[in-house]
8-methylmenaquinol:fumarate reductase membrane anchor subunit
Amino acid sequence: MKYAYYPGCSLEATAKEYNQSAKLVARHLGVELWEIPDWSCCGATAAHNNNHLLSLALPARNLAIAEAEGLDVAVPCAACFNRLRAAETAVRESESMRATISEIIGRDYRATNKTRALLDVMVNEVGLEKIKEQVVKPLAGLKLAAYYGCLLVRPPKLTAFDDPEDPMAMDRLIDALGGEAVSWSYKTECCGGSLATARGDIGVRMIYQVLRHARDAGAEGVVTACPLCFLNLDMREAQAAAAHGDQFQLPIFYFTELMGLALGYAPKDLGLTTHFVNPLPLLEAKEILRHPATRRETA
């Protein structure tokens, strides 16, 4: 199973753990990730807020390189996935747009390949049964809130791989890894994105609401597939709690990090030792880092 791999800007900077764990897990499960050579920024929020055509041309260039290799594209970042899908859809639906985009990027692009969220690839292509067969350290006793955020499953006409209001792909993955996905109402609510920087009063309040609802639902950690969601929740957890007279100790995980743990890799190999909210005390308390044969029986 081979995919063109588009890491995007975040996975080479603030989300290095995501890149590290994604590549490790993919290799373990027999998924070849061919990183698109000389890939460029997809434009993320900035481009489509300023110039619609630019917002399509930027991701289309990367898709065209993968298309020339006959490969679908696996995208770990939710925002990048959303922008690449937007370009793919626009070109596929309009011959004039296809011609315009091809002229701008200086290469032919016909949208014959498909953009896939890495979560979608793992759950629906690799398959939960295969993943479950490879688990050597189940996430037993670990209650987790699957947090999809805004861009992974919406708008549904673009993303088209899970329910936009009650997505379950990450929940089912957590269950396959031996953990428990809690039921909660904030799984697709916005974390505020860049508002945490531009309007801290609003952004921090939105971060707090996500974390509070996860905790109140019984979660001991939050799982995401979005670098910005991860950064907001992990880096600003203490700030959000203090601003509302509250306290949290909720580690934030990329889904690939949890996959790596369950497949037997060490926290350092997955980037777990670099988080702002240290997840190791929770993992040690649950004895997840120990081999199942040496775990203590719980009442």
User: Anything to note?
Assistant: The chain has two domains: 2-117, 130-294. The mean pLDDT is 95. The longest helix spans residues 52-68. The chain is about 50% helix and 10% strand.
